[in-house]
Amino acid sequence: MDRASRRGQAQRDLPRDSYRIAENFDIFDFALREDELARIDALDLDRRGGPDPDERDPSLANLAIPEP
Q: In the 3-class helix/strand/coil scheme, how is the chain assigned residue by residue?
């Protein structure tokens, strides 16, 4: 989250308990160095890792997603 925050990117994490919510707000107690940010950025291959959202698969329309 530190990297996303510093890059001005949207962040999405949906914690369910108060401990995790508080932990997520605690991202400003450390900072990644520029070389660490560069190594993370180098992992971005600029391609999707999943299906194209514009190509819908009707067989997945009624797919049940179980609760954790």
A: CHHHHHHCCCCCCCCCCHHHHHHHHCHHHCCCCHHHHHHHHCCCCCCCCCCCCCCCCHHHCCCCCCCC
Model confidence pLDDT, tens digit, residues 7-64? 766 666 666 778 777 777 776 677 888 999 899 889 888 887 777 778 877 777 777 7
Q: What are the domain boundaries of the chain?
A: 2-45
Structure pTM? 0.38
Instruction: State the residue for tokens 């996303």.
Output: 4
Measure the CA–CA gap between 65 and 47, rounded to whole angstroms. Answer: 25
What the block records as the tokens of 5 is 């925050």
